[in-house]
Amino acid sequence: MENLINEYQSVAIEDVKVWFKAGTLKDFPSNRGGCIKYKNKQIAVFNFERRNEWYACQNACPHKMEMVLSRGMTGSADGVPKIACPMHKKTFSLVDGSNLNGEEYSIATYPVKVVDEEVFVGFLE
Amino acid sequence: MIKVIVVGNGMVGYKFCEKFIAKSGQEKFQITVFGEEPRRAYDRVHLSEYFAGKSADDLSMSTSAWYEENNIILNTSELVLKIDRVNKTIVTHLEKSYKYDYLVLATGSSAFVPPIPGVEKEGVFVYRTIEDLDAIMAYAKKIKQNGATEAAVLGGGLLGLEAAKAVRDLGLNPHVVEFAPRLMPRQLDKGASDMLQSKIEELHIGIHLNKATQYIDGENSIKGMMFANDELLKVDMLVISAGIKPRDELARVSGLVVGERGGVLVNNTMQTSDPFIYAIGEVALYNQMIYGLVAPGYEMADVAAEQILGGDKAMRETIDMSTQLKLIGVEVASFGDPFIENDDVVAIVFENKFSGIYKRINVTKDGKTLLGGILVGDSSDYNGLFQIYSNAMALPPNPEDLILGSRGGEGSTMGSAMDLPDTAVICSCENVTKGSICCAITDGSCETLSDVVKLTKATSGCGGCKPMVVDLVKAAQKSIGKEIKESICEHFHFTRQELFDIVKINKYTNYYEVIDHHGSGDGCEVCKPVVASIFSSIYNDTANKHVTTQDTNDRFLANIQRNGTYSVVPRVAAGEITPEKLIVIGQVAQQFNLYTKITGAQRVDLFGAHVSDLPEIWRILIENGFESGHAYGKSLRAVKSCVGNAWCRYGMDDSTTFAIELENRYKGIRSPHKLKGGVSACIRECAEARGKDFGVIAVEGGWNLYICGNGGANPKHAVLLAEQIDKETVFKYMDRFLMYYIRTAGPLVRTSTWLEKLDGGLDYLKEVIIHDRIGICEALEAEMASLIGTFECEWKQVLEKPRLMKRFSHFVNSDDKDDNIEYVPLRDQKMPKPW
Questions:
Q1: For position B212, which CATH number holds?
Q2: What is the pLDDT of residue B354?
Q3: Which residues pair with A46 in a beta bridge?
Q4: Which residue ranges form the domains of chain A, and what is each CATH number?
Q5: Based on the domain organization, do B330 and B290 belong to the same domain?
Q6: What is the spatial distance between Cα B630 and Cα B576, in angstroms, rounded to a whole number?
Q7: Residue B317 in this model has a pLDDT that exceeds 90
Q8: Using CA of residue B760, residue B765, residue B770, residue B772, what is the dihedral sign?
Q9: Are residues A32 and B548, on separate chains, in Cβ contact within 8 Å?
Q10: Which end of chain B is less crowded, N or C, counting CB atoms within 10 A of the terminal residue's CB?
Q11: Residue B344 sits in which domain range?
Q12: Which residues of chain B are at the A interface, by a Cβ-Cβ cutoff of 8 Å?
């Protein structure tokens, strides 16, 4: 399990080496998540239409290591966009992956860009 | 730098550190803790939960980071052998020595092992540490493989009964052996012990009272216990839990004064005979007593910390030994002097053998003062009684009302928490008074309940005082004119009831309309499902209509389970099912390799379905006549029924037919919390209808309707709404009751809690829904009528609209399933690999 979680490290937009095409706009529901497969990784991608933003994070919940975050509910806390895990309602910032309940574990986040109706997620390799 | 050494790393030693850190401010101290066990201090009070699957880490009192942050050095697995009091140093078994300025002995106690011949035999254990528990578990496993089934626990006190439950959880039949003529001899009288005994025997735990054990039988390992009357109890394991013995060895070899029967002598500042050495917890002999409860230990820790830091706090003269706990599922409490009997005291006893309740209070002859009491089977009055006792408050004119409840009216005989004096201790684990809780709000240092908990630590011990703390915080907020609003979350400053009206009057049908007009921000996992549920309650919209704002289970129309797979429950109204349909369920389970279990509500639950398999599973089920069972929704789950007069020789009416009618009437309707019902055909109550949100029981001349019961964490029996009514009247009252609840309850508030909080209680509810006092019955019935009969199976909708199917694929960009899901075998089926 530790190994699984170590595969997910946040990627800053300036460090992106690979822009992976995750799908087109219509593949993703609005204000909800969709999960994409990239190599051996599962990444949750959110079309946060209400804020006119896209976010991506690891699909694994860092609490119990289940691949479920894409099925969580989006929202905000004090203006910070967040995702609530469907398993135990732990909430994480979609901006920096920090745990908004003050617990130790957090999630890795990834940059997303949309070009001509196509959605790309940024990775290091 | 002043050096403080704490010897002993148990609950009390830990509490000392916590209190010390909190009080020490900017002064420079170095705390070093020594523990002989290999781990951080853990919660020994909840040790039995280790059997139930909690890990040693779960029981920990704090994290290792906490020690680091507070600059405390923790030396585990290191035993202190000697104190050199002249040079103020200690020596450990690693032959290391450490200097101290102050030493705190918190070495606790060990299990007392009576000198019975043969106690050294294999298979005899004590019940004290995690290591003991590990050894017991390993031995039980071994002897079970050889066909052993019986095991004994020596000691019928608190811990002995805990141990008996642990033995039962290990799959052995426990026998509790007690020397005294009753169980929990220090807390209970004969009547209470009898009641507890019959409750425990129902759980197939043998009780042997008045038994002195002569010797332990067996060659090398235990084979039995021989009692004084030459009776042999054949057992293959024995757990001794016959009391505690203070761990005063270190004090003895170091020349400190100890009591005749053990324990380090302390004064009321917790100082031992050496003024630089303190003793706290179960090793300390205070007032000629060893106190084996955690609350006095915590208080001693507090006193010692304060003293070392130069304060003048002292231990109270009399220490309260009141306790409230749940033993093997039976509530037991005792407070004050439970036994007191003399000419000036009257004992009032209430006993109901049918429901297994025994209550006793000891009151002065003039009826003015409560001296103590015992509660078995139902200890819900404990908090109130304890406050009356400990604050010497005035009793009601008929003191028996305290345990009988006020017959007739619904008002509480205990009065409100605000009637207590400011000095009343509300949280006895952390010694927090009513005054300090209310002050924290009124002086502005706290705003909310969680602020108060953080500041005072109230409720952070056993948690028993929580309802009272909540009431006090609310009352204090009210007293400073603060508007107490149970707003839903940061996005809506409304209650659910207000939001319900907002949606209904403005005819909103979309979540974002509501938040844009009446809320702020982007919403969250709390308010979205509330609004979705309101839409459903008003328009009977299925969960398919508001996918984005539905809670996770409603979104996938299935219950998410431990490994991220789902479980599937088709509706089987009243539990009645044809053989053909049973075969279909079996075939679906086989085809998709699902774990199958009959639920407590007479339904079949199919576990382990991949999210992407759900549509296909439901296609087969629906083709064969099933529909969604809403097991995932805050909606009617099931109406359980007994077989009724169709088959049962006692049945007084047709409960199955009635249950089917009720289930079909309310299926699919969304509510603030999940709803369950039951119909029993006679008072034997095989459907457990009184443990449900609504329950109907056939009686001579009609049906009795009960409402607002529930199982769950705080079980409540349903209360009688109406007697001997016909089916039509049941439907009428049920429509009004459910609709009134749906309109007015807070989010995720169960019917039982809703009724508790309803001003005027059951009497008022009867006025509203039976006698139509506020003239809303017609409207309630009309609203319910618009919901009944508009049922649509959500799964059928999904299968008919390919657009709705899209949400059930695991990946957006691949047809693969989640490869992270792993199973392990379980009795010919499977379960998710443990976390």
A1: 3.50.50.60
A2: 80
A3: A33, A55
A4: 2-123 (2.102.10.10)
A5: no
A6: 17
A7: no
A8: positive
A9: yes
A10: N
A11: 320-415
A12: 490-491, 512, 521-525, 528-529, 547-549, 551-552, 555-556, 560, 562-564, 611, 806-807, 810-814, 816, 818, 820-821, 835
Rounded to two decimals, the ipTM of the complex is 0.93
Q: How far is CA B500 from CA B497, B516, B742, B752, in A?
A: 5, 16, 9, 20
Helix, strand and coil content of chain B, in percent to the nearest 5, comes to 35, 20, 45
- Domain closes at, from B191, B218, B242: B242
Q: Are residues B687 and B727 in the same domain?
A: yes
The whole-number pLDDT of residue B414 equals: 54
Interior angle at CA B518, CA B516 and CA B523, nearest 5: 60
Total domains, chain B: 5
In a domain, B99, yes or no: yes
Mean pLDDT over residues B691-703, rounded? Answer: 94
What's phi and psi for B350, nearest 5 deg?
-120, 130
Residue B466 has pLDDT above 90, yes or no: no
- Rounded to the nearest integer, the mean pLDDT of chain B is 89
- Chain B CB contacts of A42 under 8 Å are 811, 818, 820
Going by pLDDT thresholds of 50, 70 and 90, the confidence category of residue B593 is very high
| Token output for A77 | 């806390």
Interface test with B, best of A1, A41, A48, A66 (most B CBs within 10 A): A66
Does the beta-carbon distance from B813 to A27 stay under 8 Å?
Answer: yes
Q: What is the mean pLDDT of residues B653-676?
A: 94
Domain boundary residue, one of B215, B242, B269:
B242
How many C-beta atoms surround the C-beta of residue B308 within 10 A? 24
Asked whether residue B792 is assigned to any structural domain, the reply reads yes
The pLDDT value recorded for residue B217 is: 93
Contacts of B821 in chain A (CB under 8 A): 67
**Residue B272 banded pLDDT, cuts 50, 70, 90:** very high
